[in-house]
Amino acid sequence: xxxxxxxxVRVWGIWCHLSGTIAALVGxxxxxxxxxxxxxxxxxxxxxxxxxxxDQQGREAMNFLLSMTLYGIAAGVLSAFLFFATCSVxxxxxxxxxxxxxxxxxxxxxxxxxxxxxxxxxQVVITxxxxxxxxxxxxxxxxxxxxxxxx
Length: 151
What we know:
Elements: H1 7-29, H2 35-47, H3 52-93, H4 98-135
């Protein structure tokens, strides 16, 4: 039978997952986008030699955070393109439809903010779920995670 993991190993696993969310929240408040990757990298690198579970969960967390960073950059580029394309169309076609163009820009802004909020909520919820699994000594594989670091 499998022996339960020691508590300190499970705590390291929990911190591998939660450090990314904590760093993301701090990075968002301080407008430092890549700080999200720094704290989990430090936690993982500090604990990976202590137990294979810590190494595995740290890799999973880093793969997820790298994937979310990549997806966020892609979404930002796409959003910027769509915003400027929409602004160009509005400027080109708005001879006397100022109210319509202002409303359209307002809804683009709302849509962007809702998309960002959903992205952040998804990341936080999935990370908390992973931390709960780690607290029970169970491995967790993130959905939509690219395998940059192997597993």
